[in-house]
Amino acid sequence: MSREPRPCTDPIEAIEAAIRSLSDADWHRLRQASRILAAKVPGLEAESLLFGALERTLDGRRTWSPGKVDFVGYVIGIMRSLASHELTRRGINTVCLTSSVQLLGRGDPEGAVSAKQQIQSLRDHFCSRQDALALAVLDGMELGCDGPTLRAQLGLGPRDLETVVRRIRRAAIKVLPSR
């Protein structure tokens, strides 16, 4: 009588199994996202950001729900949170608006809050679809990176970047409230 492997019930075992099962493409996406997110914070190393996210997951400071969230998207979310926390700690405001997505934002605090909510809505949309590339491009656009910079950082061709930007624009039309 053969036994089927039991699913991991220990959260740490599940995380370790998820890390071991990451493909080369998954690692590439994580490294791309860490480079873009680390670029937001002066002096923050991309590798430190990535391994800081993994460390917080392994030591239990961050909780992963395997059935609900893709591991790569989860780690990218932690990196985004860590970078944001570091910016807040340093008192750096990064609410930048991109003309490519044409998010509304006024110079007043209400406009900044609205813009931040709109950006978060787009991030949530792409997280739910496990679209790490769109998240990385959106982060780069928020930073004000131009096309050549984004292509170089993400290893994309001109048409590849245009395709992702179109995907972001279509999502903005669907996800964001009418202006």
Report on the structure:
The chain is mainly alpha-helical. The chain folds into two domains: 8-93; 95-179, no CATH class. 64% of the residues lie in helices and 0% in strands. The chain has eight helices and no strands. The protein has helices at 11-20, 24-38, 46-58, 71-90, 109-128, 132-142, 147-154, 158-175. Helix 3 (46-58) crosses helix 4. It is globular. The chain starts with 10 loop residues before the first helix and ends with a helix.
Helix-residue proportion: 55-70%
Overall structural domain count? 2
What is the ordering of alpha helices and beta strands?
HHHHHHHH
Unreliable spans are 1-6, 94-107
Record field, number of beta strands: 0
Beta-strand proportion: under 5%
Quaternary organisation: single chain
Mean pLDDT: 78
Largest sheet: none
Number of helices: 8
Principal-axes shape call = globular
The N- and C-terminal alpha carbons lie at a distance of 63 Å
Which structural class is indicated by helix and strand composition? mainly alpha
Radius of gyration of CA atoms, rounded to a whole number: 18 Å
